[in-house]
Amino acid sequence: MIPADTLAPFPAERRPALAAVNGNIPWAWRALGSADLPWLMALYATTRAQELQPLPWPETVKQQFLAQQFVAQHQHYLGHYPQAHYLAIDVDGQAVGRVYIDEAGEDDLLVDISLLPAWRGRGLGTALIQQLQQAAAMRGRSLRLSVQVHNPAARRLYERLGFIADVAAEAQTHVAMRWTGTAGLS
After folding, report:
1. 22: closest CA among 92, 74, 71, 111?
2. Which of 158, 133, 132 is nearest to 147 (CA)?
3. What gap in Å lies between CA 115 and CA 113, rounded to an integer?
4. pTM for the whole thing?
5. Mean pLDDT per 10-residue section of the chain, whose length is 186 residues
6. CB 4 within 8 Å of CB 37
7. What Å distances lie between residue 67 and 9, 40, 58, 74, 102, CA to CA?
8. What separation, in Å, do the N-terminal and C-terminal C-alpha atoms of the chain show?
């Protein structure tokens, strides 16, 4: 495990905490801090589990690799999106995911959204994205994101919420998507 004090800290909270309800699931977001880094590392590992499963590496090597990749991703996000809001998603006071949103550009950018496996497919991700869409719409802005080519479930979710793929900007690993209006809002 990477010691939290060796990683760059999250920026100071700039977006107020939000509490909402999705169906019967009360959820809230709050600013992330250094104390969140251990569970964020565990969350990151869940997003790569399927990809690493077939590799014949010993479990300790996989864990070291994931720790290095988490550090690289953390440093990349903080370096490239210094104005972003880095938020934990809590349900009943327990962290179940993260959402990173950068509002500094021409459009809002959903940098990252990840939920623990037990919370995927339960409507929480939809509720979070719709909240971000509503916030962007209130300011007359679009919402952009990119989705991994090998994540068809996420792409279907984004398309259902009104995001359109920019096939001209499609890369080998990611597809850029943009939401420009009220499609997907309920």
Report:
1. 92
2. 158
3. 7
4. 0.90
5. 73 70 81 94 94 93 95 96 95 96 94 96 92 92 93 93 84 89 66
6. yes
7. 16, 11, 14, 10, 24
8. 42
